[in-house]
């Protein structure tokens, strides 16, 4: 049994929760430069003391001498600093991240005049209960908002089994454009529930793909993102007022996930679903949406499962090609591959296909045959000074995603052999003293993967 | 075969853990983040990507959990959270499996519980002290760690303005979600097998039962902590955008001072926390229900201890803190238990003490919503009720009860097996609508000036509209 008498020690627990002991150790290492400066200052102090003593002895001698020594020391420190900078800081910081959302367009007007005439409110007119409810048709919208937020609206429509057009357009607008988070979220829940496969509600009007797309454009989505630009310019700057997408993006993602699940309404077509996958990939590339990755993944999962098996085999390749020619060929393309969850058959398939297509696009060669591509990769001389190891790193990760656990290549021992050769190539020809950026990354990645192939 | 598997997973462990090893290098912070991401990706590709992937070892799982618990980078928090939930799906610790039995007296399939003993768990409940010390480094949560997490979140919710919202709180919220999903993954299969074979032992060793029954934590405070997280976080929500009468105040404005990525994630994470808290409370209620069943069958022993049912604690808390009623039922909307809480609340004030016996299994007339409504149809009993509960609270509870009733009746009709009884059901729905209306009328009759709350008005509108479509 546990020790009941022992007092609860919140303090120490707390401490333990927040701070891993390892983290402090590491931090120490990171500030190695500061240590140097500290040492320098200490040294200065010592010198000062010495000089004071010296001054006491020989007044005429000390100042100049000290200055020289000081200058020498700081020169030395500077040199040290520079060298260290070359070793560790030379590595360019390459992060993924695109600013997918530009300036928002003005959100459409939400005033709905025809709402007052909707059957739901009208039928209540003249009801004797109005002495209690005190419903003012003029303020009908505010009342309906409350019905929506508090969940009554859904209950009402569940009983009458029918959603009027005015209610449908109004809630859809709230979902996509209301600046009040609670309205947008409630309207979204409303739509998810009336679209659910078990619901038997008749809906007079449905927001089609055009509405979905229009909303995205209004949010400032840049569908024309150039495929090649330097990533550091595009790095998301969180404190600038670039805006980013409005809160409604969450409702948008969830609505898309819900509407691709019901094929009976045919809200979107196959080609539109393909387009949606590309859009979702872009959303994954925006760091502002990192916190939404759970719902983004769920949405991706729904869209991928929208296709029938027959459609999927062709659509998957189409999507992969379209992604490959649009995604910038830097860390973003690795993020692209990694954002595809790879937990079920279809997303594994998509992940492989996307990795392969991006690799082909990066290599800029005609070959699309696995063997040829691998031979080409092996032919790159990584020892050469001019060889861009950053690119090699990207090739390595892309090929890993393309080749590993690929059922179509399972019975081709040549491919596995070449893959092993390539990995050995990358891990052995780059020495541990290679100071080029990404040298250590390529080497350790390749040797890690090599362990995997040899243990098989 | 098994030995081979162990060797393989050991090999993967060595290879992947090395990615995290930063000793001997001068690493920049972003390098460390990179390494951790690479580690997460490596575990994913070793365990989930292959068709027959092997579960990561305890050490690897603990490392992922540590990343989620301690990191300050949103990317790492999300990535580790997703990997952990994905791993739980692929390699459940506990699951119910259907076993075909042909020899037993009653041939057919039997539900059996499978427990993977060697699986990693983020908890270190019920272990002896020595092991606990051992585990201190692994970063697993123990009783007090769990309690602190709840308290922290409750505190954050009370004291903080949205501007001060930081990654740290987002992390705690994500952590809480994960913890609850682990508890659930452990409890649900156990409970469903218990319902089949009545083996109470399955539930006594469930993480949830150990946690709630532990004398190391204050169980009541834990439940109250959950309630206060719900109420306070709903207030944040209210501050942001709930004021319907104000001209559109943009949520983005309020968020301006904090990072946009957090601002966009916050409502989503909060919603997930609400769902997780509701799930947690529901599990505790289901546990209570199963416990009651075990009690009546005489399966429990003294070692099981005594614990106040969750419903009672919640109902007490709502009694003392009337302001909590609205936000709580906004979040807690599972109709069956919502109804249970509301009916019990009323029962306390309606039921005659002589009739009320604690352990009767027979339904008493007023133990249903219909019974409650019946009391409200009589002006004298309404008078006596409103002496004990304020008219506002009565309105809120009636309206929420009505909502739960509607949800329940749609659930039944969606299940679709009551076709023949359709008329009967419609009749009773009309009946309930009428009773709700007359209950509110009676409240007004007691006091001419009583103000009908907006939520009450909405309930009345709904009831009247349903009546008019049914007639």
Task: List low-confidence stretches of chain A.
Answer: 1-31, 227-241
Intertermini distance of chain A: 45 Å
Largest sheet of chain A: 2 strands, parallel
In terms of quaternary structure, what is this? heterodimer
Cross-sheet strand order for the largest sheet of chain B: 1-2
Gap between N and C termini of chain B:
70 Å
Based on secondary structure, the structural category of chain B is mainly alpha
Report what the structure shows.
The complex is a heterodimer of chains A (456) and B (471). By secondary structure, chain A is mainly α. Chain A is built from 22 helices and 2 strands. Chain A has helices spanning 10-18, 21-30, 32-57, 62-89, 119-122, 130-133, 140-149, 152-160, 165-177, 181-195, 209-218, 231-234, 249-259, 270-284, 293-304, 309-326, 331-339, 345-363, 370-379, 389-403, 413-429, 439-454, and strands at residues 162-163, 202-203. In chain A, helix 17 packs parallel to helix 20 and helix 21 (413-429) runs antiparallel to helix 22. Chain A starts with 9 loop residues before the first helix and ends with a helix. Chain B has 471 residues and is mainly alpha-helical. Chain B folds into 3 domains: 1-91, no CATH class; 121-331, no CATH class; 333-470, no CATH class. Helix content of chain B is 68%, strand content 3%. Chain B has a two-stranded antiparallel sheet with strand order 1-2. Chain B is globular. Chains A and B meet through helix 1, helix 2, helix 4, helix 7 and helix 8 of A and helix 1, helix 2, helix 3, helix 4 and helix 6 of B.
Brief rundown of the structure:
The complex is a heterodimer of chains A (456) and B (471). With 456 residues, chain A is mainly alpha-helical.
């Amino acid at each position: 049994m546990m020790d009941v008498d022992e007092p609860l020690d919140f303090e120490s627990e707390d401490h333990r929760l927040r701070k891993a002991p390892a983290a402090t150790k590491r931090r120490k290492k990171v500030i190695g430069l500061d240590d140097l400066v500290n040492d320098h200052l200490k040294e200065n102090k010592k010198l000062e003391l010495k000089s004071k003593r010296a001054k006491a002895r020989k007044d005429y001698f000390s100042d100049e001498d000290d200055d020289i020594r000081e200058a020498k020391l700081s020169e030395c420190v500077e040199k040290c600093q520079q060298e260290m900078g070359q070793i560790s800081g030379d590595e360019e910081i390459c992060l993924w991240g695109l600013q997918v959302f530009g300036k928002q367009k003005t959100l459409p007007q939400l005033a709905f005049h025809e709402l007052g005439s909707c059957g739901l409110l009208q039928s209540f007119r003249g009801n004797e209960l109005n002495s209690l409810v005190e419903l003012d048709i003029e303020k009908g919208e505010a009342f309906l908002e409350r019905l929506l937020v508090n969940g009554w609206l859904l209950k009402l429509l569940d009983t009458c089994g029918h959603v009027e057009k005015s209610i449908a357009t109004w809630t859809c607008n709230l979902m996509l454009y209301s600046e009040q988070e609670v309205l947008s979220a409630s309207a979204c829940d409303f739509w998810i529930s009336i679209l659910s496969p078990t619901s038997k509600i008749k809906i007079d009007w449905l927001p089609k793909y055009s509405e979905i797309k229009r909303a995205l454009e209004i949010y400032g989505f840049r569908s024309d993102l150039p495929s090649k630009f330097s990533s550091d310019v595009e790095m998301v700057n969180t404190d600038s007022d670039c805006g980013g997408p409005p809160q409604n993006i969450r409702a948008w993602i969830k609505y898309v996930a819900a509407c691709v699940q019901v094929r009976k309404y045919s809200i979107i077509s196959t080609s539109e679903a393909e387009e949606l996958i590309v859009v979702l990939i872009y959303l994954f590339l925006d760091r502002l949406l990192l916190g939404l990755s759970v719902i983004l993944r769920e949405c991706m999962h729904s869209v991928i499962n929208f296709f029938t098996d027959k459609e999927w085999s062709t659509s998957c390749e189409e999507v992969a090609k379209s992604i490959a020619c649009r995604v910038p060929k830097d860390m973003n393309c690795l993020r692209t591959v990694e954002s595809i969850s790879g937990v079920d058959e279809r997303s594994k398939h998509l992940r492989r296909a996307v990795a392969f297509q991006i690799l082909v696009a990066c290599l800029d060669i005609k070959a699309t045959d696995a063997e040829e591509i691998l031979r080409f990769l092996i032919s790159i001389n990584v020892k050469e000074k001019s060889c861009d190891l950053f690119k090699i790193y990207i090739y390595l990760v892309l090929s890993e995603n393309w080749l590993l656990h690929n059922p179509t290549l399972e019975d081709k021992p040549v491919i596995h052999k070449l893959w092993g050769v390539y990995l050995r190539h990358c891990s052995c020809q780059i020495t541990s003293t290679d100071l080029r950026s990404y040298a250590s990354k390529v080497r350790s990645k390749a040797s890690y993967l090599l362990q995997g192939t040899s243990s098989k | 075969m098994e030995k081979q598997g162990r060797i393989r997973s050991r090999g993967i462990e060595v290879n992947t853990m090395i990615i995290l090893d930063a000793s001997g290098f001068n690493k920049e912070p972003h390098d460390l983040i990179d390494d951790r991401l690479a580690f997460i990706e490596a575990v994913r590709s070793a365990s989930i990507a292959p068709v027959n992937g092997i579960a990561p070892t305890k050490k690897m799982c603990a490392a992922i959990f540590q990343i989620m618990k301690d990191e300050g980078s949103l990317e790492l928090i999300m990535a580790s959270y997703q990997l952990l939930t994905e791993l739980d799906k692929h390699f459940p610790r506990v699951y119910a499996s259907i076993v075909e039995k042909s020899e037993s007296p009653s041939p057919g399939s039997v539900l059996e519980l499978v427990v993977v003993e060697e699986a990693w768990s983020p908890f270190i409940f019920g272990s002896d002290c020595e092991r606990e010390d051992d585990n201190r480094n692994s970063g697993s949560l123990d009783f007090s760690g769990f309690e602190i997490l709840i308290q922290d979140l409750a505190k954050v919710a009370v004291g903080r303005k949205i501007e001060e919202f930081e990654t740290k709180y987002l992390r705690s919220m994500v952590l809480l979600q994960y913890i609850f999903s682990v508890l659930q993954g452990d409890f649900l299969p156990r409970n469903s097998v218990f319902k089949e074979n009545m083996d109470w032992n399955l539930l006594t060793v469930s993480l949830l039962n150990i946690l709630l029954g532990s004398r190391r934590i204050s169980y009541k405070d834990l439940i109250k902590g959950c309630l206060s997280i719900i109420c306070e976080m709903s207030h944040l929500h209210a501050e942001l955008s709930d004021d319907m009468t104000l001209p559109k105040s943009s949520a983005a404005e309020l968020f301006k001072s904090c990072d946009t990525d957090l601002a966009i994630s916050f409502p989503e994470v909060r919603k997930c926390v609400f769902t997780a808290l509701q799930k947690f409370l529901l599990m505790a209620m289901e546990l209570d229900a199963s416990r009651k069943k075990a009690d009546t069958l005489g399966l429990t022993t003294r070692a099981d201890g005594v614990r106040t049912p969750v419903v009672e604690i919640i109902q007490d808390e709502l009694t003392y803190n009337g302001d909590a009623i609205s936000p709580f039922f906004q979040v807690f909307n599972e109709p069956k238990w919502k109804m249970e809480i509301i009916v019990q609340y009323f029962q306390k004030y309606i039921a005659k003490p002589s009739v009320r016996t604690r352990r009767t299994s027979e339904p008493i007339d007023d133990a249903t919503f219909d019974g409650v409504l019946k009391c409200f149809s009589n002006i004298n009993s309404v008078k006596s009720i409103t002496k004990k509960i304020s008219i506002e609270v009565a309105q809120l509870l009636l309206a929420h009860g009505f909502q739960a009733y509607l949800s329940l009746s749609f659930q039944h009709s969606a299940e679709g097996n009551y076709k023949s009884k359709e008329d009967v059901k419609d009749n009773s729905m009309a009946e309930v609508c009428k009773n709700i209306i007359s209950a509110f009328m009676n409240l007004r009759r007691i006091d001419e000036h009583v103000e009908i709350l907006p939520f009450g008005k909405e309930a009345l509108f709904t009831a009247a509209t349903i009546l008019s479509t049914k007639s």
